[in-house]
Amino acid sequence: MASLKVNRGRTLARSQALQILFQSEMRKVSVEDVLAGDYTLSKGPLAPYAIEIARGVSANRDRIDSALRAVSANWTLERMPGADRNLLRAAVYELYFQVADTLDAAVVINEAVEIAKAYGTDESAGFVNGVLGRIVRDRHLPSLQHVACTITAEDAEAACLAALWFEIDPKRLAAEEEAARAAEEARARFEADDYGFAEDDLDHIFNDPFDAEAGE
C-alpha cells in the first residue's frame, strides 16, 4: 500500500484554518472580519491555503453543514465541541471541493484526525474519523481501505475503479454502460485472483456509485 505523502505546509494551513473558523464562530463575526482584524494563531504567518479553506467553508457553509447533519444524526452540530465542528467543516470542504484523487482524500482525513488529537478532547480523533468516514461513503469518495486497490490493480481494473469513483453524467448512457461492463469484468477478475477484499467491499466499489445517482 502506498504511503501517504504529507505536505507539511498544508498541515500547518489546515491547523490555521481551524483556528480562523473557530474564532469566527466564537466571536460571532464573519471569516472576512476575522481575517481583516486581529486573529490569534498558534504558529504563523497565516498560510494562503488556510485562507482558502476558511473562505471556502464560509461560502459553502449551508451545504457543508447539511452533509454533516446527514451523517451525524445522533450528535447534532450544536452539541459538538467547537473545535470538532469547525475541523469537520474544514475537512468536508476539502473532500467536496479540493480532493483530486485517492491519496488526497486519505491525507485530508488522516490530518483531520491528527489535528483533532491536538485541539480536541480525548474522544475527538475517533469522532472526527467516524464522521469523515461516513462522508466518504455517502459521497462515494475513495475510502482509506481502498487506497491500495488502485495501486495494485492493472489496466482495466484501474481504469474502471477510477471511473466509478467519480460521478458519471447520466446523459452519457454509453459511457455508463461501458463502465458497468468494465465493472463486471473487473469484479470477476478480482474474485478469481482473490485480492483479499471482502464481498461487501466489492459491492461498495462496483455497485453503490450507480445506485447513489439513480434518483438525481
Automatic annotation (TrEMBL):
<dbReference type="GO" id="GO:0005829">
    <property type="term" value="C:cytosol"/>
</dbReference>
<comment type="similarity">
    <text>Belongs to the NusB family.</text>
</comment>
<dbReference type="GO" id="GO:0003723">
    <property type="term" value="F:RNA binding"/>
</dbReference>
<keyword id="KW-0805">Transcription regulation</keyword>
<dbReference type="GO" id="GO:0006353">
    <property type="term" value="P:DNA-templated transcription termination"/>
</dbReference>
<keyword id="KW-0694">RNA-binding</keyword>
<dbReference type="InterPro" id="IPR006027">
    <property type="entry name" value="NusB_RsmB_TIM44"/>
</dbReference>
<keyword id="KW-0889">Transcription antitermination</keyword>
<keyword id="KW-0804">Transcription</keyword>
<dbReference type="InterPro" id="IPR011605">
    <property type="entry name" value="NusB_fam"/>
</dbReference>
<protein>
    <recommendedName>
        <fullName>Transcription antitermination protein NusB</fullName>
    </recommendedName>
</protein>
<dbReference type="Pfam" id="PF01029">
    <property type="entry name" value="NusB"/>
</dbReference>
<comment type="function">
    <text>Involved in transcription antitermination. Required for transcription of ribosomal RNA (rRNA) genes. Binds specifically to the boxA antiterminator sequence of the ribosomal RNA (rrn) operons.</text>
</comment>
<dbReference type="GO" id="GO:0031564">
    <property type="term" value="P:transcription antitermination"/>
</dbReference>
<dbReference type="InterPro" id="IPR035926">
    <property type="entry name" value="NusB-like_sf"/>
</dbReference>
<feature type="domain" description="NusB/RsmB/TIM44">
    <location>
        <begin position="13"/>
        <end position="137"/>
    </location>
</feature>
